[in-house]
Design goal:
The complex is a heterodimer. Chain A has strands at residues 5-7, 10-14, 19-24, 32-38, 45-50, 56-59, 62-67, 72-77, 86-93, 101-102, 106-111. By secondary structure, chain A is mainly beta. In chain A, a hairpin with a 2-residue loop joins β6 (56-59) and β7 (62-67). The N and C termini of chain A lie far apart (41 Å). By secondary structure, chain B is an all-beta fold. Chain B is built from no helices and eleven strands. In chain B, strands 2, 4, 5, 6, 9, 10 and 11 form a seven-stranded mixed beta sheet that branches. Classes of the chains: A mainly beta, B mainly beta. The interface between A and B is medium-sized, with 24 and 23 residues.
Chain lengths: 112, 114
């Protein structure tokens, strides 16, 4: 059974602080890893699609790293702002013709 | 450009009643997904279409759930009859090509079965 784990389940961070959280996935048969952000009352929105071991992607204050050999990805947020409050989901793809396997998400709450 | 459109946004029904959800994907996206999302869990794929063909419906409970994507554009998902355990958010997403590419999501339909 393929399993994607995200930790922590929820996180409270003071505005201005930096934070990070983890997505763990099977290290065999890796094809791609997706990160999405889901704000309350909005649609999930893609952040990154990552494929290469050691890859690092960045969008503004958000960045992600990928380690396919050990099966984890980190998402970093630098200088958290209230608008960063959302649930961050990762999803693992083992084959281009297969379905994404989703984690349960990390719920991030930024305290002003 | 319009995003993925879903309706209704909210639906409250009594158990054993039928319910239907509608999704219009982003123009030109050939792949359409229906997901079920329970509170505190990640989305679970119900069915994936490539154009009008259902290429993965292994997790669709076919005794009560059905879906169609006529003409390979918009899609409907139906539950008949609904059960209490069907209360969840139903998400529709679309993408160009395979699951490798980023998926664009609609706002979801929150279903409550009483």
């Amino acid at each position: 059974i393929l399993n994607v784990e995200q930790s922590p389940q929820s996180l409270h961070v003071q505005e201005g602080d930096s934070t990070n959280f983890t997505c763990s996935f099977p290290s065999s048969n890796f094809y791609a890893l997706h990160w999405y952000r889901w704000e309350t009352a909005k649609s999930p929105e893609a952040l990154f699609v990552m494929t290469l071991n050691g890859d690092e992607k960045k969008k503004g204050r958000i960045s992600a790293t990928l380690n396919t050999k050990e099966g984890y990805s980190y998402l970093y947020i630098k200088g958290s702002q209230p608008e960063d409050s959302a649930t961050y989901l990762c999803a693992f793809l083992m084959d281009s013709n297969y379905q994404l396997i989703w984690g349960a998400g990390t719920k991030l709450i930024i305290k002003p | 450009e319009a995003g993925v459109v879903q309706s209704p946004r909210y639906k409250i029904i009594e158990k054993k009643q039928p319910v239907a959800f509608w999704c219009n994907p982003i123009s030109g996206h050939n792949t359409l997904y229906w997901y079920l999302q329970n509170l505190g869990q990640g989305p679970e794929l119900l069915i994936r279409y490539e154009n009008e063909e259902a290429v993965d419906d292994s997790q669709l409970p076919k005794d009560r759930f059905s879906a169609e994507r006529l003409k390979g554009v918009d899609s409907t998902l139906k539950i008949q009859p609904a059960e209490l355990g069907d209360s969840a958010v139903y998400l529709c997403a679309s993408s160009l090509g395979t699951s490798y590419n980023e998926q664009f999501f609609g706002p979801g339909t929150r279903l409550t079965v009483l």
